[in-house]
């Protein structure tokens, strides 16, 4: 019996198990004793661990933060990391998001692809591998996370409480083929105080919703005398609107939203607002601040004028998204999300970027970093996963680099591998999420072969 056949023998059981878990709405909830991410997430974890025990594996519950099951012997361990928490269902479903209905060759429900389907598939892949009796020299651990969608505190808890670090492994929470590079991500908040002089007084400025979203709207409210307001509002620029308001005027800008990892696909409304404000007869410290922001950031998405336009052939250029701005008559504050290419590090961009802002009178209020992830294409992990992918799908494909961050970054030595195949419709985090039964089975087979390849 080969691994593909062993997985097929488990197909009905695997589908039933997935359906049971899909009916548990494991969205993060109020923490309770033993349930740090809420009762439903804990219920989902308990269900999956019970299923693993029924399959004959030793299991461990990491205080409700996550759980794992394991098979095999040996000093070294390889891991498959999935997660059981889901994002809220949201509106627009044409089926019950927690009904786990099957129709049209598809299983429908929140979590079917992200990431309950692949997680349950990993349990049955492990069982299939055991049933074939193929010899392995490393232990194989299926890690079941509970907090991927809202901060990955689960894995932090696991690692800080003695959780074993795998020698290598993968998370089926991305896409095929292998993602072997993920840019480093820096989120930084700067602010600056100012005194204002002259006829125009900025009283409010606002734009954007989050650092990792390209803002599509921003505005700035000014106070001034009637005549000045009337004069300025005659100005016109495309995608910029000047309008009168009591005691002054508003400058409003419009752009195009996009994900913060691909700012080039959007048009930054805050940057556009800055370019417009830079033409106003402002004076003093506010004028300095606006001029700095307009000329060093503006609508650029590669950090060129800020002096950090790093680039490599593996993952492309640094991307920069100016996500939000807020401010009033005395102070403004901005949040920037930028992502550096995988062959560079924090030290290659952040110190220079921070110094540039410091020189312009800005204070760094906060900074958070997620280091890049990069495992070369000729490594054992990447070549093994690519071999399995090619054999199982008949597709060539090559490892890829992305600007986003996956669950793989949370534990050393992991890469994202599956579950989405090239050309698949992507329904994660959207209404009517589904996984086709064919894809569920194919994923289980690929996971089984990948487990074997890494552990043999
Ligand atoms: Zn996920």
Describe the structure.
With 456 residues, the protein is α+β, with helices and mostly antiparallel strands. It folds into two domains: 3-182 and 373-455, Zn peptidases (Aminopeptidase, 3-Layer(aba) Sandwich); 185-370, Alpha-Beta Plaits (2-Layer Sandwich). The chain has eleven helices and 24 strands. The strands form five sheets. Strands 1, 2, 3, 6, 7, 9, 20, 21 and 22 form a nine-stranded mixed beta sheet that branches. Helix 1 (3-9) packs across helix 11 (437-455) and helix 2 (11-22) packs antiparallel against helix 4 (116-132). The longest helix is centred in the C-terminal third of the chain and has 19 residues, at 437-455. The chain starts with a helix and ends with a helix. 49% of the residues are buried. The model has no long low-confidence stretch (mean pLDDT 95). The structure holds zinc ion. Zinc ion (ZN) is lined by residues 83, 114-115, 148, 173.
């Amino acid at each position: 019996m080969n691994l593909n056949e062993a997985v097929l023998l488990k197909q009905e059981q695997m589908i039933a198990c997935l359906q049971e878990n899909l009916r548990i709405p494991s969205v993060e909830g109020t923490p309770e004793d033993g349930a740090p991410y809420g009762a439903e997430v804990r219920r989902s974890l308990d269900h999956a661990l019970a299923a693993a025990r029924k399959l004959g594996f030793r299991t461990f519950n990491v205080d409700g933060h996550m759980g794992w099951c394991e098979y095999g012997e040996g000093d070294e361990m390889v891991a498959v990391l999935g997660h059981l928490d889901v994002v809220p269902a949201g509106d627009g479903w044409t089926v019950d998001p927690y009904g786990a209905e099957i129709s049209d060759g598809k299983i429908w429900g929140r979590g079917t692809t992200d990431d309950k389907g692949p997680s349950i598939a990993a349990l049955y892949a492990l069982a299939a591998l055991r049933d074939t009796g193929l010899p392995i020299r490393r232990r194989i651990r299926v890690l079941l996370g509970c907090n991927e969608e809202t901060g990955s505190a689960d894995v932090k808890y696991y690692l800080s409480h003695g959780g074993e670090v795998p020698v290598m492994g993968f998370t089926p929470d991305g896409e095929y083929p292998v993602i072997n590079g993920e840019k480093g991500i820096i989120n930084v908040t700067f602010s600056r105080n100012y005194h204002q002089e002259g006829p125009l007084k900025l009283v409010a400025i606002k734009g954007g919703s989050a650092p990792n979203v390209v803002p599509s709207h921003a505005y700035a409210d000014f106070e001034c005398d009637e005549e000045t307001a009337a004069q300025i509002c005659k100005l016109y620029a495309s995608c910029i609107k000047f309008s009168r308001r009591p005691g002054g005027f508003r400058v409003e800008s419009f752009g195009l939203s996009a994900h913060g990892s691909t700012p080039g696909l959007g048009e930054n409304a805050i940057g556009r607002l800055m370019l417009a404000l830079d033409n106003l007869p402002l004076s003093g410290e506010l004028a300095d601040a606006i001029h700095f922001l307009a000329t060093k950031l503006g609508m650029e998405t590669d950090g060129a004028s800020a002096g950090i336009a790093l680039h490599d052939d593996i993952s492309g250029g640094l991307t920069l998204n100016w996500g939000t701005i807020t401010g009033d008559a005395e102070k403004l504050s901005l949040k920037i999300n930028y992502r550096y290419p995988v062959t560079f590090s924090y030290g290659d961009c952040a110190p220079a970027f921070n110094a540039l802002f410091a020189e312009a009178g800005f204070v760094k209020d906060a900074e958070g970093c997620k280091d890049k992830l990069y495992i070369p294409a000729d490594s054992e992990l990447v070549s093994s996963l690519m071999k399995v992918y090619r054999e199982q799908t008949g597709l060539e494909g090559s490892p890829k680099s992305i600007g986003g961050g996956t669950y793989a970054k949370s534990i050393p030595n992991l890469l994202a591998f599956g579950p989405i195949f090239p050309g698949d419709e992507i329904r994660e985090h959207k209404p009517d999420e589904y996984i086709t039964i064919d894809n569920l089975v194919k994923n289980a087979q690929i996971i089984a072969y990948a487990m074997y390849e890494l552990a043999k």
